[in-house]
């Protein structure tokens, strides 16, 4: 993985800086597009559900879970074909 990439996100009316590796940003962007929502809306959703976890960590965990679900769905689809 390469270095962190910072982006500014508006959460509940407050600008928040979020730094993630480009690979995580790519997964979050794909997840947002797949869900028919903006990246900001996806991050707001992650923020609401994160509990005590830092936002950057919650975004990474969300991205990993998204990839795992997508991979599992792909396997299930291939098994049916």
Automatic annotation (TrEMBL):
<protein>
    <submittedName>
        <fullName>RHH DNA-binding protein</fullName>
    </submittedName>
</protein>
<dbReference type="GO" id="GO:0003677">
    <property type="term" value="F:DNA binding"/>
</dbReference>
<dbReference type="InterPro" id="IPR038268">
    <property type="entry name" value="RHH_sf"/>
</dbReference>
<dbReference type="InterPro" id="IPR027373">
    <property type="entry name" value="RHH_dom"/>
</dbReference>
<feature type="domain" description="Ribbon-helix-helix">
    <location>
        <begin position="5"/>
        <end position="66"/>
    </location>
</feature>
<dbReference type="Pfam" id="PF13467">
    <property type="entry name" value="RHH_4"/>
</dbReference>
<keyword id="KW-0238">DNA-binding</keyword>
């Amino acid at each position: 993985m390469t270095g962190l990439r910072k982006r500014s996100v508006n959460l509940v009316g407050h600008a928040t800086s979020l730094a993630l590796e480009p690979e995580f940003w790519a997964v979050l962007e794909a997840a947002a597009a797949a869900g028919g929502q903006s990246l900001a809306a996806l991050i707001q959703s992650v923020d609401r559900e994160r509990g005590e976890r830092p936002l950057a960590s919650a975004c990474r965990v969300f991205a990993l879970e998204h990839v795992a679900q997508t991979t599992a769905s792909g396997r299930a689809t291939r098994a049916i074909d």
